[in-house]
Every structure is written in structure tokens, then in C-alpha cells.
Amino acid sequence: MIALPAPKPEILARREEIVAALRALVPGDGVISDATRLKPYETDGLAAYRQVPLAVVLPRTTEQVAAVLRYCHGNGVRVVPRGAGTSLSGGALPMADAVVVGLMRMNRIIDIDLDDRFAVVEAGVTNIGITNAVSGDGFFYAPDPSSQLACMIGGNVMMNSGGAHCLKYGVTANNLLGVKFVTIEGEVIDIGGAHLDAAGYDWLGLITGSEGQLGMVTEVTVRILRGPEGARAMLAAFKGTEIAGAAVDAIIASGIIPVALEFMDKPCIHACEAFAHAGYPLDAEAMLIIEVEGSTEEQDELLARIKAICERFDPISLKVAESAEQSLAIWKGRKGAFGAVGRISPDYLCMDGTIPTSELPFVLKRIGEMSTQYGLAVANVFHAGDGNLHPLIMFDANDPDSFRRAESFGADILRLCVEVGGCLTGEHGVGVEKRDLMNVQFTARELDQQRAIKTAFDPQWLLNPSKVFPLEGDPVPQAAE
Amino acid sequence: MTGNAETMLAPPDEAGIAAAVSAAHAAREPIAVEGNGSKRGLLRPVQAARTLSTRGLTGITLYRPAELVLSARAGTPIPEIEAALAEKGQHLIAEPPDTRALFGSDRPATLGGIVAANLSGPRRIAWGAMRDHVLGIRFVNGAGEVLRSGGRVLKNVTGLDLCKLLAGSYGTLGVMTEVTLKVLPAPQTQATIGVRVADVAAGVRALAAGLGSPYGVSGAALVPAGASPGGPAETVAFLRIADFAPSVAYRTARLAEDLAPHGEVRIAEEAESRALWAAIRDALPLGPSAEEAVWRVSVRPSAGPGVVEAARAIGGRAFLDWGGGLAWVAGPARAEAHDAIAAAAAASGGTCTLFRAPESLRLAVAVLPEEAPPLAAIARRVKAALDPAGILNPGRMRAGF
Ligand SMILES: Cc1cc2nc3c(=O)[nH]c(=O)nc-3n(C[C@H](O)[C@H](O)[C@H](O)COP(=O)(O)OP(=O)(O)OC[C@H]3O[C@@H](n4cnc5c(N)ncnc54)[C@H](O)[C@@H]3O)c2cc1C
Ligand SMILES: Cc1cc2nc3c(=O)[nH]c(=O)nc-3n(C[C@H](O)[C@H](O)[C@H](O)COP(=O)(O)OP(=O)(O)OC[C@H]3O[C@@H](n4cnc5c(N)ncnc54)[C@H](O)[C@@H]3O)c2cc1C
User: Fold this and answer.
1) Is the pLDDT of residue B6 over 70?
2) Could you name the domain of life of the organism this protein comes from (chain A) (predicted)?
3) Which member of A316, B35, B87, B348 has the greatest number of CB atoms within 10 A?
């Protein structure tokens, strides 16, 4: 288990006073302090870690967020920002002496401009909510995390979330134009806008992916794009992971940029097939789902090219969707991959390292060896175009030893990712989960430089404590253990 | 000032850069940072006795076409990188301008300089800016420490993203020594639809129609009548389609049909199309005289016509890229002219950069818009976090900063 610092007793002692002060700032039912209603906020998508917070505040306006942060800053109270709480790295995990500031009530769409191709929404609008608001006109918001029905754009900004289509359309950072940013001192700052280029420092770029360490975001301006005429998928299954990897290289080398290029290994194919009955080949060691866009003729042309490339790699099966329905069927298994694994094993850890794609065969081989060594099953899904691995490590939450092994196994996978030239996290963030591995990827000086930048925004280190940075280097001393 | 710096240091390696910055840090002595120094007119002049150049740090250090990544030392000339990519049928995604003609400089931009200025060309509208494709950097901070951010993989959210912070920081936060970029396959071919429109506003509407179509427009520019001295007397909207040949043929035909209501349509095939976009990328339509100032204005696309108006009102001229959202303006190098262009940008919530001007003007005006006071306070603290003694390019972006 990852250590969390002891709460500050002087804050716990002032709980009632703090709750009363917050109630004055966010009237009505905007402050939660009773134990039963706090319970739902005790965890996020990393459910193995739980901690009931001091209180939860649910502001409805930017002014209320600013007032709450100003109060917390003035009173040395820590703050845990929260969107939908789907973080898989424990990014939204509360602390006992911290106030959770949840933005789910800030869920208005403020402006949609199809001519200038942007939308302004509050931070609590869901990812899919943006696309739903513009899809009637043929537009969409490109980054599409699998959690898009639930996760909120504010959380996406803070995690710089990706999705299955980011090989072509980029991640959150590449689709943002501006944010309304609230500092811990309660200042409201407009960053960016409806235009493309910042003059001066790229604050938007620094804030994106900062995991709630620098301030809170209450409004977001995103680019919206006109959708393609259509899209269609194909499936290609191979006898070995190396072979599938080589096929991926050949597709990219041909100059085609598929909108999606997903990779599944054998255990994952089996889990998904049992769940979705998508017609996946069970004898394959590796399977690719490849999607292209354009008119029907363009799709035909591109899929034919990709099929010809795959044929050079002795495929076990090649299935080109003939229709949108067949395409959906191919995707069905992949989209349900997490749920499918959840059926085999109620508990699993979803890892998220990125590797240079040429290292894929080696990394999968090592993960297989570790799986034997730790005695835990693992299924791999993988954004093949960009090297972002999602090994799903299965364990039994009722068996503490199994959880401990799963955590060590996960950490070993991430160390391996860094060793081969990759990184600890491609899209889920460091959070609490990978905090203590940051030393594997960065030198002490590099971490100190990042800490110094955090301090420039949050001098007392009140924002989202005990996440991202290993505790021993906190410039602001934590309470005694 | 950069141009007359008394001492020029151009170490051959990163250790040399670090040593030079360490020494300057210890002595509290400002240094001007540059790549190839092709930018003597960039932003504000730096008051520094020494200039530190990364031009000695050259060479591509890693290129994996199948992984879509390329790393090179910061002083590597952009044309060298473009040539290596072209050999494998790939390109720099952001299509950075080659400003040699515009600025009458003979040295090509370096990778570090282009990233430090976050300079992107026409493709930015569809595929993102220079900063969007910086996957990793090595840099020397103002204390002389060699640090890294990001890495060499396409997806990475580990820790704070200092790559984006340093991209566009004009050498004021650190000296980049090596940059890793995402690259992409270059499209097989391209074509451009030119639509002759009645006026600038009609032209921006045509561009919006194109960018709102499903045909993947990868360039959307508007050259108003009179934008170029001695240039065409017509206002033309240009839309580029770049892809595999069958797609280009199909999409160009469809889009031309859709755009017909906006004005007379003409299609430029590959060679003409390439030449056209190279000119737009490099701001050649402006053809500014030596005395004129040049501004780069970023606004919401529908505000582009207002900037063109403002340019005309100061006795200058402009053309638009990025669907109307980027205005290149040339006009008299006077403070009133600068204020008028800056005000036109601010009116729509956009930004304005004094891109080129005589030193006297660059010292007299804010070359970049001021930041709101709370943000300016954070900026000072972030600057101090990276460059505690304030020695890197002091005054480059803002007076006294
Ligand atoms: C089944 C499942 C599938 C997933 N698939 C993907 C995927 O495909 N791609 C992907 O990238 N991620 C995925 N995720 C992870 C997760 O959905 C994303 O990280 C998402 O962006 C989190 O959004 P959220 O609203 O739930 O934020 P939360 O989990 O509430 O918060 C995330 C972080 O941001 C901070 N934060 C939230 N809102 C704000 C704000 N307004 N201001 C400041 N800080 C804030 C929090 O403190 C926390 O550190 C998945 C998660 C699940 C459970
Ligand atoms: C606002 C603006 C004005 C311009 N004006 C001119 C001009 O008058 N004349 C001209 O020829 N070109 C000009 N350019 C074009 C531009 O400078 C060049 O195309 C290109 O950026 C310069 O590349 P370079 O390698 O010569 O870098 P330089 O021009 O030497 O440097 C550009 C900026 O980047 C910084 N920098 C360079 N290398 C590094 C590094 N490794 N790490 C950190 N920072 C670094 C420098 O300090 C400087 O602030 C201008 C660009 C902009 C954005």
C-alpha cells in the first residue's frame, strides 16, 4: 500500500468551524459533512484506496469555487479537486484533513460556436456531453476516453486524458483552447480563449495534465471538429505478438494514419470474446482492430491497402467490416474489455505505461514471465499506434497478499516501461498510485524543478496533497507521523 | 542587444551549455540565448554582454519512422530535419514557417529556435501547433542544471509538462539542448480550391464552410485584394486537401461543389498548391518593405476580418490563415499603429505579437499583450523557479522580466 501522511490534528479539531464557514460560502445543500453522505466520495476509480474526507463542497459557480479556495488558503486547509471520480490512479482520493471540492454541479454548456468551431462548457460537463451537444450538426469533441459517459471535462483537462482515437486526433491537450482557472488564493484567471495561439507562456499546456496540483478549472473551451463522412473497422489476427507488431509498423510505414489501431493479446481476446461474442479468433496470439475514416469508397480503398499489408504477415484471420453494424460488432469486444476482464476477475489493476512500439514483443514477453512469477493472470490491451499499454492485472481483493502482489507486479511493469525508453503513465496520471515510482523516471533535480513550479502556484502545498510527488521531497513539511 | 553582443559562446555540446549557464548564474550576468541568431528583430532586444548559442549542438540523435518520433540536438537546422523526414516520406506536423525571406536572414532556423518561438504554419488549423508535437526536451535551466521533461514516446502524462511551458518561452526559462518531436507521414499529394469571394467576411465564411465539412481541410487561408504590393486585385479564399491521390481527387471535387455558392471556384493541382502554401506559410504575400513592422495576430476565425480592417485603417495590409484565425499584418512601424492592431486583437479576446520591427518600436511598446496581474505574479514566480538569478534573455518578452 502507498503511504498517506497523517492528517493535521489541528485541522481535524476545527472541523465544525470549517464546515460552518464553507456553508456560508456555498449555501443550500452545497456542503456535505455527515458520514453517510460523505461515504460515496471516499474513493475514485482506484477503489483499493479509501479515505473519507473532512467535508465535500459542491459549488455551482466559479465565484463559489474561488471563495472556497480563498478560505482554504487563508486557513491552511487542504483541497482535493474532484470531477466524476473515475481516476484510475487515485488522483481524486480524499484525505482525512482535506475538503473535496467537486464540480459535478457545474454542468452547463455555456456557448457553442459552429462557425468558429469551439464550445465553452463548465468543468462538470461530461466528456460525451460535449459531443452530444454538437453531434446533431455533425460535429464532435475528439478525445474519447472509455469512461466518456461519466468522466468530466475538468477531470480530462487535469489528467490530459486520451482515447481510442488519439493517434489521429490527439489527446486532451491538443484539443483545448482555453480554461477559466482559479488559483488557491481565489484569483480567477482566463487563460486562452477561442483563438489558437497563446502570446507568451503556454499556461494552458502547463495546466493540462497537472492533476489538480496547480489550481482548479471551472470552465473549459474546447475545439470541436466536423466528423468524417463515415468510419469502418477491420480485425486482423496473428500467430505471434512480434508478427502483429511488425504489421503495425508496416501499416504506419505505408503512410496510412488509421484513426484507431488497437492491440489485444490472447488472454484479452478470450475475455472479450466470452463477454461480447464478437467473433474474435480464439487461436490467435494477438489481434488488431484498425479503423479508418472517409467516404465509403475511401474506406474501401484504405481497408484494402491495410488488408494487403496484413496479408504479408501470415494472418490467422482478416475480417473487414462491410457495414457500420459489422464495425460496431468488431469494436464491441474492445470497448467492453475492462468489463470483460471484470467478469473473469472481480478485481483488477489497470496499468498504463507507454513504451516505444518496437519494444512491444520484449515487453509482452517479460510481462508474461512476471505473471508466472507473481502467480497472477494478466490481459493486455494496448493502443498500438502510440505504445500506450494497458495490462490488466487480476487479483482477489479479499486476499491482502494477492493485492500486495498485484501492486508489486504493476510497479515492475512500469519500471520495465521506463527501462525500455517509455514512461510511467500514458493517460491515467500519476495520482497516488505511481507517486513513489516518480524517482524511477526522473532525477531528484528534475522532481525538485517540478516541485518548484508547483510552489509558484501553490506556495503552501494545499492542492491535492500526497499525489504526484514522492512525499520525502515536499518543500512544505507534512504533519508528523 | 543580441546583434552587438560582445561575446558569443557556441559550445559544441550540452555540457558546454550547462557550464556557460552555471558561470553566468554564479556571476549573476545576463545572457542572450539564441539558436542560429536568425531573429535579431525578435520581440524585445536583450541587454546582455554575452550571447550563448546552441548552434554548435547539431545532429539528429534518433529517428524511428515506424514509431513516428525524431530527436535532434537543439541547434540542428530545420532544413536538415525536413530533409531526413522527406527521405522516409514524413514531415514536421506543424509546418513551421521559414522566415528567412521575410527577415532577410541567410541562416536557417534551428529546431530549438522554432520550438522556443512555438512557430507553426498553415497545417496548425488541422494538425496542431509546434508545441503539440514536442514529446520531450532536454534543457539547461537558469541555474545551469541539465534536466529532462517528457520523453520519446507518443503518450506521456508523467509529471508536469515542462515541454509545453518551454515551447514558446523564447529562451527565458531554459536553454533547450535536445528536442524530441512526434512526426507523421506526409500526404501523398495535395490540391487547393481557390474561391473568388466578394470581400474578406465572405471569404472567412467560405473557409468556415470548408473547415466545417467532412473533407479534412488541412489549410484555410484568405488573401484579400491588395494584401500584396503589386499582388492580385481579387480576394481569394484557399482551401487545401492533402491525402492519398484518390481521396484528394474525390474530396476536392466534393468540396468545390459545396463551395460554389461562395464564389467562382478554381482548383490548383499539386505543384501549384505546394508553392501556394509555402508562400502562405512564410508570410510572403505581405512582402513588407524594410521599414515596415510585421504583426502576427491570433483571434477567433470570425474576428479575422476585423483585424484586416484595422490593418487597412493604419495604412497597412493583412492576409489571413487558420480559417481567419491568424492574421499576418504589415504596416507602418509606429506606436499608434501597434496599439491599433493590439486593440483589434484584444477586442475579440485574441492575442497579438509584434513580429518584426525596428528596435526603437520594440523597446517602446508591449510586444506581447500584458498578462492579468494574478497571472503576471505567477509568471514571475515560475520564472524564478526556473531561472532564479534572472539571467536568461532578460527583457526578451516583457520589459523588466
Ligand atoms: C472504466 C474506465 C475507463 C477509462 N478509460 C480511460 C481512457 O480510455 N483514457 C483515459 O485517458 N482515461 C481513462 N480513464 C481514467 C479517467 O476516466 C480519466 O482520468 C478522467 O479524465 C477522469 O475524469 P473525472 O471527471 O472522473 O476526474 P476525477 O477522477 O474526479 O479527477 C481526476 C483528477 O483531476 C483532478 N480534478 C478533477 N476535476 C478538476 C477540476 N475541475 N479542477 C482541478 N482539478 C480537477 C482531481 O483532483 C484528480 O486529480 C478510465 C477510467 C475508468 C474508470
Ligand atoms: C515574434 C517573432 C519575431 C521574429 N522576428 C524575426 C526577425 O526579426 N528576424 C528573423 O530572422 N527571424 C525572426 N523570427 C523568426 C524566428 O526567430 C525564426 O524563424 C526562428 O524561431 C529562429 O530560429 P533560430 O534557430 O535562429 O532561433 P533564434 O532566432 O536564435 O531564437 C529564437 C528564440 O528562441 C530562443 N532559443 C533559441 N534556441 C533555444 C534553445 N535551444 N533553448 C531555448 N531557447 C532557445 C532564443 O532565445 C529566442 O528567444 C521571429 C519569430 C517570432 C516568433
Assistant:
1) no
2) Bacteria
3) B35
